[in-house]
Design a protein that fits this description.
The chain is an alpha+beta fold. It is built from eight helices and twelve strands. The chain folds into two domains: 135 residues, 2-Layer Sandwich (Alpha-D-Glucose-1,6-Bisphosphate, Chain A, domain 4), CATH 3.30.530.20; 96 residues, no CATH class. The strands form two sheets. The chain has an eight-stranded antiparallel sheet. Strands 9-10-12-11 form a four-stranded antiparallel sheet, covered by helices on one side. It starts with a strand and ends in a 6-residue tail after the last helix.
Amino acid sequence: MPAKLRTDEERPALRLERRLKHAPEQVWRAITDPAELEHWFPAKVDVELRNGGAIRFTFPGEDEPTTGHVVTVDPPREFTFAWNDDTLRWLITPDGDGSLLEFTHTFGRGDPAIAKLAAGRTAAGWDVCLEALEARLAGRDFEQPTDWHTRMASYVDEFGLGDGEVLEDGTLRFRRDLVWKPVDEVRALLPDEPGWHVVQEPLEGTRVEFTEPAPDDVVAELARRHEQLDKLFAATHGVELPDWTPEHVEAVKKHYAERPAQG
């Protein structure tokens, strides 16, 4: 099942679930045993498996781990931990001869609107992790995907993360997550016109922001800039998108015309 984007006490939260042909005890071991986590989790994990225990993550290319803390250990039902102010909750329930695994990632730090921008890439990442987890449980090899752009762009569209807005002062604004792309690489791809800014934050990654005074035909300009941002996002992944078809342009214009575009 694809990831869903929700709001939990004003914080953005991703929810994913998988029905697994394995007993809860097997799934519990796969999500808590560091030796098993190595086969599907994106970092090396060291965990004190107790409420309040430390959990440490060492990512490829990094020498120093980052540390979080365990919130709940309730085998084989719930494993919840906090990390960089985010909360990750794994809930396992029996489901026939197997299990239902429900995973929620709540973004806990910073401005909720900025945190939400990363939901597209994060959802794509967790999709792949859970695919690898399923393969591990089934005793199958797993090959990492290469087309990350398509996965992320699909979620950006589904969650509305590529949409522009018109602020109260009449400014048209877009903000788009660009994962962790180097700032200089992004700047080299920007159009040669005012209004473009690149921001990189240690925990949030890279994003581009575009602002301009709203023109007379706001709907047409929102659609034009939306296409421009889609192409920029693709270009940062080495992908060249074709121009939108006239039908697509009209569909996006209709989308903006039918929704309030106020920030």
